[in-house]
Write a structure and sequence with these properties.
CATH topology: HIT family, subunit A
Low-confidence stretches: none
Helix content: 25-40%
Bound molecules: adenosine monophosphate, zinc ion
Radius of gyration: 17 Å
Order of helices and strands: HEEEHEEH
């Protein structure tokens, strides 16, 4: 995709600080880092979101994500690591080329995702599960 910023990073057409790549995935530093070490793991081919990932691509991207998380743990000794991944603007996606954020975390670092728990009745949970099973 000619206009996609992450495709340009994969193709080395724009500057990026790349820390890892293999045949199907690439990891580079997020220019809007929440904490030092905040990295992005992206699919190399232009796939917009999780719905376009085939199995080998999903496997490669998640293997790289685990590799980067282990590296961040060793390099920064954070108190935790958050994986964040958005699909669609309603979900918070701003770059429409599949990627996973790998963020070193510390108590009180200010990164917050509002999580409005609704504690539905068991019947509603069962009904939601049935809808999922019906299409798996
Ligand atoms: P998302 O909101 O999950 O789509 O995240 C997109 C992320 O890409 C943001 O955290 C941006 O800071 C980051 N980003 C955008 N452009 C670049 C770039 N050229 N190099 C590195 N990170 C980028
Ligand atoms: Zn792209």
């Amino acid at each position: 995709m000619a206009e996609c910023i992450f495709c340009k990073i994969v193709a080395r057409n724009v500057p990026a600080t790349i820390v890892w790549e293999d045949e199907r995935s690439i990891a580079f530093m997020d220019i809007g880092s929440v904490n030092p070490g905040h990295a992005l793991v992206a699919a190399k081919p232009h796939v917009e979101n999780i719905f376009e990932l085939d199995q080998p691509l999903a496997a490669a991207v998640f293997q790289t994500t685990a590799r980067i998380a282990r590296a961040l743990k060793q390099a920064f000794a954070p108190q935790g690591v958050t994986l964040y991944q958005a699909n669609g603007s309603a979900a918070g996606q701003t770059v429409f080329h599949f990627h996973i954020h790998v963020v070193p975390r510390y108590e009180g670092d200010g990164m917050n995702l509002a999580w409005p728990i609704k504690t539905p009745p068991r019947s509603a949970i069962e009904e939601a599960a049935a809808r999922i099973r019906a299409v798996l």
